[in-house]
Specification:
There is one protein chain. With 191 residues, this protein is an all-alpha fold. It is built from 8 helices and no strands. The radius of gyration is 17 Å and the shape is globular. The relative contact order is 0.12. The model is unreliable at 101-118 (pLDDT under 50).
Length: 191
Amino acid sequence: MSSSGITQWLDEARNGDRAALDRVLQALYHELHAMAKRQLGTGDEHTLDATVLVHEAYLKLVGQAHTQFADRAGFFSYAASAMRSVVVDHARARVALKRGGGQTVQRVADLPEHVDGGLKLDEDLLSLDTALNLLSELDPQLARIVELRYFAGLSEPQVAELVARSERSVRRDWQKARMFLLHSLQGGDGA
């Protein structure tokens, strides 16, 4: 599917045409599924699989009354955010079940450069979500880079293309975001 066709459907969806959004999702399903697979990896500790993640994210996408996407990049940003939400909700449920609804750990030692092994659905992911919310309040652009790199599993070149910036800028933002998140996760004040 051409990028212009998807953009046209996104325009139609922005004007309230749910069928157009369905066409976008159908056309981009394989890309969304690949994002989900990269995110979840192949770890045996997961009870959430890529297909379920895509379907849950889809429900979040169509469940929003006023969901609008300016372009393909906006769509993928929103999809990455929806997938993050699904994964975090799943992690919360797992932790609550495991801990009997107790408090989650608020510290981790490391935020990996890549998530080739998939996200671990545990307390660390919940702490990362909290830190990412703080980052989003301070710098939404950095938070968006994290969602696309870490939660959607996109490479720096893919993110650069989506956000229409240079790979170098994306790499610099990714490093700044990682430093902020590491500081926050290690008990810093987030500044």
